[in-house]
Specification:
Length: 451
């Protein structure tokens, strides 16, 4: 019978078939209808499944007719359905892993991975229950009546043209669709994604996580670094959009250039100074001072200090920038042999007393050693019996070693050395006097000749 649904009542719907009849909610459709209000006012064919004339009760079913119709379609569909066939279907149900498509009496599964060549988070992103769609039959098991369907297979595979569309070193633009600990996935087109590895995001900064640089939804420009079409992989680089600063740093700061920068970090082996954007230079502890003995760089510097330094070396391959602070001034040891020539009498304060001798400071950072054997003509059991730290001593220079930066001093022959020094000084004065007398006599003779 034909009837029109007129209202919702407890347990189902009221239907007008000339007289009022009852349609249970379970009999409205093949599957339970969550919202019965949407069918109110619609006209359908029904089958009377119960009739009580005495009470005047009539129970209807629409589901029975639909099942019968479905079974008729099912037998037709099974006869005509083939693999690789494109057919029309209606989205019957959605799950997290896919969608069930009614092909006409038989349902097929459209898996989420076969919905699009691109990334699909949930089937509901692209499909809705009731949608009419064309699908391709991927697999068909007639015995078990199982059908696997594909939606993306109707369109050409975009990876077939990837090699020609995205050659290596090409600049491309895409959208960030996913972030992981190791990189960011960029959608270049539907079904084609490339990976910017975290190591390819910056030339100079250590990127701990891609979300420090990119966000999902960002449009980014990158460079194609490598293609693996067999495994559907594209390697992209973000930092390659800009020149590598290490390629031009040598031109910007040639060796010998004096730079000024902040101390960025302090380690046991030196200090790091900011040179350029993202590039720090290392001043090794041995290049902090010509003369001072620095046990740890923190003794002399702290983070944030503004310092000047000289560019010593640039290792482009290993990305290392070497700086020197002591090179800002001349090495005092270059003039030590002339300032402290053999036989020179010097004075200095005792800085250290050891079992083998006494160290005295001649000037800031330059010390000389009086070996225990050079302390006195008499036997001395221990240098500690001879002098204490802070005492002032006078000694004569025995030898200067510029390679090992050592000055050997002696006290035991100081008297002899003083005599030699006085004689040398006297002889020098005599020579100067004789020279001056000669000049005066020569001048007098010259004037006589002129007269």
């Amino acid at each position: 019978v034909e009837g029109r649904i007129i209202s919702r009542i407890k347990g189902g719907l009221s239907v007008d078939i000339g007289v009022n009849a009852f349609l249970p909610g379970s009999q409205v459709d093949l599957r339970p209808v969550r919202n019965l209000d949407k069918v109110i006012g619609q006209t359908f064919d029904f089958k009377i499944i119960k009739l009580n004339k005495r009470r005047g009760n009539i129970v209807l079913s629409r589901r029975v007719l639909l099942e019968s119709e479905r079974e008729s379609h099912r037998s037709d569909t099974l006869k005509t359905l083939e693999e690789n066939q494109v057919t029309e279907g209606i989205v019957k149900n959605l799950t997290d892993y896919g969608a069930f498509i009614d092909l006409g009496g038989i349902d097929g599964l459209l898996h989420i991975t076969d919905m699009s060549w691109g990334r699909v988070k949930h089937p509901s992103d692209i499909l809705a229950v009731g949608d009419k769609i064309n699908v391709k039959v991927l697999k068909f098991d007639k015995e078990k009546e199982r059908v696997s369907l594909g939606l993306k297979q109707i369109a050409p595979d975009p990876w077939l043209d990837v090699a020609s569309k995205y050659p290596i070193e090409t600049k491309v633009t895409g959208k960030v669709v996913s972030l992981t600990d190791y990189g960011a996935f960029i959608e270049l087109e539907e079904g084609v994604e490339g990976l910017i590895h975290v190591s390819e995001m910056s030339w100079t900064k250590r990127v701990k996580h891609p979300n420090k640089v990119l966000s999902i939804g960002d449009d980014v420009e990158s460079v194609v670094l490598a293609l693996d079409t067999a495994n559907r992989r594209i390697s992209l680089g973000l930092k390659q959009i800009e020149p590598n600063p290490w390629d031009v740093i040598g031109e910007k700061f040639p060796i010998g250039t004096i730079i000024e920068g902040q101390v960025k970090n302090i380690t046991d082996f030196g200090i790091f100074v900011g040179v350029d954007e993202g590039i720090d230079g290392l001043v090794h502890i041995s290049d902090l001072s010509w003369t001072k003995r620095i046990k740890h760089p923190s003794e002399a510097y702290k983070k944030g200090d503004l310092v000047k330094a000289v560019v010593l070396n640039i290792d482009r391959e290993n990305e290392r920038f070497s700086l020197g602070l002591k090179q800002l001034s001349a090495d005092p040891w270059e003039t030590v042999p002339t300032r402290y020539a053999r036989g020179t009498i010097v004075k200095g304060k005792v800085t250290s007393v050891t079992d083998f001798g006494i160290f005295i400071e001649l000037e800031e950072g330059i010390e000389g050693l009086i070996h225990v054997s050079e302390l006195s003509k008499e036997k001395i059991d221990s240098p500690k019996d001879f002098a204490e730290v802070g005492a002032e001593l006078e000694a004569g220079v025995l030898q200067v070693d510029t390679v090992d930066r050592k000055i050997a001093l002696s006290i035991k022959n100081l008297d002899v050395q003083k005599e030699k020094a006085q004689v040398s000084e006297f002889m020098g004065a005599q020579k100067t006097a004789t020279s001056n007398l000669g000049d005066l006599l020569q001048g007098a003779v010259g004037r006589k000749s002129e007269e």
